[in-house]
Amino acid sequence: MNATPGTGAATTPVLAPPGPTPGAREQEYEHADAFPLPAHKTSVATARHRVDQDLAEWGVPESARDDAALIISELFTNALIHTDSLEITCRVLAAQHGLCLSITDQGHGPTGPRVRPADRDEDCDDAENGRGLLLVSALAAAWGVATDPGHGRTVWAVLNPDGDSYSAV
């Protein structure tokens, strides 16, 4: 498995991302959930809702839940748009020292995720596409990509490492 930190994000050795294999780094977290969803547009909202529900049950503050919901939505949407996956697996891990979110697709995309300028239509300066990983990079302390050839690609993001603890987690 190869791991590559995302452009513009720092690597965080304390909170290594979970790999495509369930349980890869989950022992570092008090709470964990992983769930596969069909690669359909409606699954984005399902993933966002389930992650928010998990984090609420684990006592994570609403502001962090909002950031996590946006990140999981962006990562899931990217996997949906840029791969030919039939199923996408979401993983959320929480501990006193932070959150780790990840999306694992089936690795059927031609390239890996990368931050790029927003798509610009010649007639429109307000394009709706191309800002997902810019948002992830702005919200996450670190993000990256782990690939396992033939088994999938995991895009992960870490929130709040080595910062203020989540008091209720």
Structure in a nutshell:
This protein is of the alpha+beta class. It has helices at 42-57, 62-82, 132-139; strands at 2-5, 31-38, 87-95, 98-105, 142-148, 152-159. A hairpin with a 2-residue loop joins strand 3 and strand 4 (98-105).
3D architecture notes:
This protein is an alpha+beta fold. It has a single domain, classed as Heat Shock Protein 90 (2-Layer Sandwich), CATH 3.30.565. 27% of the residues lie in helices and 26% in strands. It has helices spanning 42-57, 62-82, 132-139; strands at 2-5, 31-38, 87-95, 98-105, 142-148, 152-159. A 6-stranded antiparallel beta sheet has the order 1-5-6-4-3-2. α1 runs antiparallel to α2 (62-82) and α2 packs antiparallel against α3. The longest helix is centred in the middle third of the chain and has 21 residues, at 62-82. The chain is globular, with a radius of gyration of 15 Å. The two termini are 30 Å apart.
